Amino acid sequence: MFKAVPAAICGLVLFCLAPQFAIAVQLLSASASVEVSVAQMQPIAAGAAFDYVIHVNNEGPDDAASVTLTFPLPSGVAFQSDSVPAGWSCTTPAPGSGGTITCTAATLAPGTATFTITASTPPTASGTFSTTASITSATPDPDANDNSFDVDVLVAPSTDFSVAVAGTPNPVNAGTDLTWTVVVANNGPSTASAASVTLPLPAPATFLSLAAPAGWTCSTPAPGTNGTISCSLSATMNPATQATFTIVSNVPGSVAGGTTLSATATVSAPADAFPANDSATASVTTAAVADIAVTKTRTASLVIAGGPLHYTITVTNNGPSDTAGVTMTDVLPAPLRFTSISAPAGWSCTTPPAGANGTIVCSTTPMAAAATATFALDVVVDPATSAGTVINNTATVTTPTSDPNSANNSSTSSAGVSTPPNVTATKSIAGGATHPEGSVITYTIVLANSGSIAQTDNPGNELTDVLPASLTLVSAIASSGAAVANTGTNTVTWNGAIAGGGSVTITIQALVNNGTSGTTIANQATVSYDSDGNGTNDASRVSDDPSTAAQSDPTAFVVVGIVPALSRMSMLLLAVALTALALAMMKP
């Protein structure tokens, strides 16, 4: 009967027969074979997060009781997060720190439990990071050889460098500076210890300057030349950081508007895993802009009808760009007659015939930025031009190139037509046409300037009056200027200015010498003046007696009778008295 009972019931039978032994028999028959294994990708990028995938397996045949998984992180590896299967609880280090992960379960049924431990290494890490995962259970394990698993993780640097480039301003005016901004980024995850970046300048742009960040060593073309900027990382560059390079170049003024300038920046690094973003190109379009200016001046001189007039015309390209061409036009106003024009090299002019009125046109192509052209224009004022006429002569410049400033595209020089000094002299004698011997006579000379501009006090005498020997000079005074009576030479001189349309009065007193009765004494003064207003007395004429109809005739009187002779002292006293009287009469 007992032999027919299955072995599985035997324990129960034994329990019935000998209950004190039943539990012992039951425990000795339980068995659970647990094992642990770990999987992970290889190699791992320094600085990147990665997963340890831990498999805990119970091959049975029974449940495993009081199961504990232990996983110490290698030194230099930091815990980030975990994924734990149901029925398990884990203690972990704080995120970002190292330590041991310990997970427990009261029972592990036959089957597999999978844990995911996310960890990371520093961006500078490199090498093999090793640890051992282990599993334990309170249930007997018939095979303890698979209760631990050695894990070796290979960590290597890996970076993703990228580059961006921009050119400003866009468009850029030819003849101005163009700035290229190159931004190199280490997108990680690892720290980089080697990298290089290059930017060949597009021709014909020339290098001016470079501002590079710390930790980079650069080579550049010589300032003013074209070439390539190359920079190498001489320190380390952490992930998620950027390096900005500012390159200033110059676009020559001769570059035509509408030209495209393209620059390609390239970055390279030994551990760059993503080469697709290692180059970038920026394009800038050029514009031609030139500020053309003209100034027109005339030589400071008297402008008179029939006289010459000299102008200086200056054309300047203030840039920044070269122009495709420049045209200067000068339309002569009616009072002006063309004489000649002197043009600089590279310019050609069309003009009216000499002596005629018309338009002057001068042109050149091209005209470089900062270049200057100076023209010398000579004309003559029409002789029929009235005094007081204002002559406005305007020069203008035009260019097909864009000119941002039209305010300086024309310049006008004004000239008022004047009449030069024209000084005449009248000389009259007080007291009629006869004077006795021994008497004192008074001459009045009036100098009148009929010109519209002043007769200035030029070098030399404006008036000279040499009295005849039959007279003895006593004195000379003037309403303005300086009258000098030189009794030794019997000569009166006057120096001074006469305003346009103004006059000066000179009074001369002289004694009629004895022994001259019955004679006629005639006298004329000589006036010198500036007939062309150039500051030099170049013309002269003699005085006129206004009491006669004749022109430019001397002032004359007849000596009659004899007055009682006076002593020399008396004569001098009389002369002084007469001088005082004359002064009193001239006062207003």
Question: In summary, what is this structure?
Answer:
The protein is mostly beta strands and 588 residues long. A hairpin with an 8-residue loop joins strand 25 and strand 26 (359-364).
> What is the share of helical residues?
under 10%
> In angstroms, what is the radius of gyration?
59 Å
Instruction: Tell me the β content.
Output: over 45%
CA-based shape: rod-shaped
Low-confidence stretches: 1-28
How many distinct domains? 5
Number of helices: 3
Q: What is the CATH C level class of the largest domain, in words?
A: Mainly Beta
- DSSP strand count: 41
CATH topology group of the largest domain: Immunoglobulin-like
CATH architecture of the largest domain: Sandwich
- Placed side by side, the strands forming the largest sheet appear as 2-10-9-4-7-6
List keywords for this structure.
disordered N terminus; 6-stranded mixed sheet; Immunoglobulin-like; 5 domains; rod-shaped; single chain; 41 strands
Architecture overview:
- This protein has 588 residues and is mostly beta strands.
- The chain has five domains: 28 residues, no CATH class; 126 residues, ntegrin, alpha v. Chain A, domain 3 (Immunoglobulin-like), CATH 2.60.40.1510; 127 residues, Immunoglobulin-like; 126 residues, ntegrin, alpha v. Chain A, domain 4 (Immunoglobulin-like), CATH 2.60.40.1530; 164 residues, Immunoglobulin-like, CATH 2.60.40.
- The chain contains three helices and 41 strands.
- The strands form nine sheets. Strands 2-10-9-4-7-6 form a six-stranded mixed β-sheet, with no helix packed on it. The chain has a six-stranded mixed β-sheet with strand order 12-20-19-14-17-16, with no helix packed on it. The protein has a five-stranded antiparallel β-sheet with strand order 25-26-23-28-29, with no helix packed on it.
- A hairpin with an 8-residue loop joins strand 25 and strand 26.
- Helix 1 packs antiparallel against helix 2.
- The N terminus is likely disordered.
